[in-house]
Design goal:
The chain has 13 helices and eleven strands. It is an alpha/beta fold.
């Protein structure tokens, strides 16, 4: 059975949807448009030809159909900083025959995406030729573009199937699961630690050989020479022994670091396994600007995320403006003031009534507990509003 062809897609959504598919040489594989072509129909058409690893759009803000297509296929989205102008699209498609407007726009989008990745494709092809990896070239291209790995890391993940840490990272990449970036960062650290460990062991081995050679030469010396060189050799041996002890201590430390990292990977893997029953919480000490900007890149806060905040009463107006349209629920370890609850359209829940599992920068809480807490919060708000309305009516009736 042949290898699946890798494709670069371009989509122009609308009442009439246009789509274009290119191969990795930039040749047109498919170019078409159709009325009322939804996501499922589009996926069916693309899967007939192969697997899309990137998708382009001519809009500065990716249309929802393009985003959904990316989510379903894993294709990486490429879009311009500003909407492509007619002249720019004409220049992109000048060597192709696309008469219909939607098809021409889709072709321009696919060529825009292809131009963004053709340098990567070229580097992978050179690496594959030079290292005898032609058989896995397309799989490397797939991982480098869709998962944003380095070429060497992609090759390691494909080939190093026997190593536990590589298997975990490969599973995370294949599942497109929770916190893939965390796994990939851990993978980088483990590989670096393994290289350092290898160099330390080699240096330690060389030092031991050097010491044995010195001791051997010492034993062969004539008695008359021993007194002359004894102090110098003993000093060298002592120094080398200290170096060996130091390196062995470093080896022990590195082994412990690798064990801790593997334990962290195992914990995160368990978290992924229970992702359907849990909601993942991204942790902040407070809602102040210093704390938020320090952790912004690591947490990558997205639409619909839920936060776990230690002290919600330390707050920045700028931070709340940034997250107000993304975050609907904040779980707090300390109660939020009534002023903060009233000013911001976000639901604050007390962590004391929830079973929270801590995982470094992240935490998890059973989805059922969140839903129960939300129902209680909604009921409480309704009771308070009813009481306020009743008091207002009583005061009005007593007024002259």
């Amino acid at each position: 059975m042949g290898e699946t062809k890798l494709l670069v897609a371009g989509i122009d959504p609308g009442t009439t949807t246009g789509y274009a598919l290119l191969d990795l040489d930039g040749n047109v594989v498919a170019l078409n448009s159709s009325k009322n072509l939804g996501l499922n129909g589009l996926l069916e058409e693309v899967l007939k030809e192969g697997k899309a690893i990137s998708v382009g759009t001519d809009k500065a803000k990716a249309p929802s159909l393009v985003s959904l297509f990316s989510a379903k296929t894993g294709a990486r989205v490429f879009y311009p900083k500003e909407d492509l102008k007619v002249e720019e699209k004409r220049e992109l498609t000048k060597n192709f025959d696309a008469k219909i407007g939607h098809e021409n726009d889709a072709l321009a989008a696919s060529l825009f995406a292809f131009n963004r990745i053709k340098g990567i494709i070229g580097r992978v092809e050179s690496y594959a030729r030079e290292n005898g990896k032609q058989a896995i070239k397309n799989r490397i291209i797939d991982l480098v573009i869709t998962k944003e790995l380095s070429i060497r890391e992609a090759a390691d993940i494909i080939e190093d199937k026997g190593k536990e840490e590589t298997k975990i990272i490969k599973d995370a990449v294949d599942k497109e699961g929770l916190n893939q970036r965390d796994f990939i960062k851990l993978y980088h650290i483990i590989k670096r630690q393994e290289r350092e460990l290898f160099l330390l062991r080699r240096q330690n081995h060389n030092l031991k050989n050097y010491t044995r050679n010195l001791e051997s030469k010492y034993s062969l010396m004539q008695k008359k020479d021993i007194d002359y060189v004894n102090k110098k050799i003993q000093k060298n041996i002592s120094f080398k022994n200290k170096s060996i002890n130091f390196l062995e201590s470093r080896l022990y430390e590195k082994d412990n670091e690798i064990k801790k990292l593997n334990d962290m990977i195992f914990a995160l893997e368990k978290l992924i396994a229970s992702a359907r029953e849990h909601i993942i919480l991204k942790k902040l000490d407070n809602l102040g600007s210093e704390e938020f900007y320090k952790k912004m890149n690591a947490l990558n806060i997205l639409q619909g995320d839920t936060l776990l905040v230690k002290n919600p009463n330390i707050i920045s107006h700028d931070v709340m403006q940034l997250i107000k349209d993304k975050i609907e629920i904040i779980i707090t370890k300390e109660p939020a003031s009534s002023k903060i609850r009233q000013e911001h359209g976000i639901t604050f829940l007390d962590s004391n009534c929830l079973s929270i599992i801590d995982h470094g920068n992240f935490a998890a809480v059973p989805r059922a507990e969140i839903e129960k807490a939300l129902r209680s919060e909604t009921l409480l708000k309704a009771v308070i509003e009813s009481y306020k309305q009743k008091r207002k009516e009583e005061i009005t009736s007593l007024s002259p």
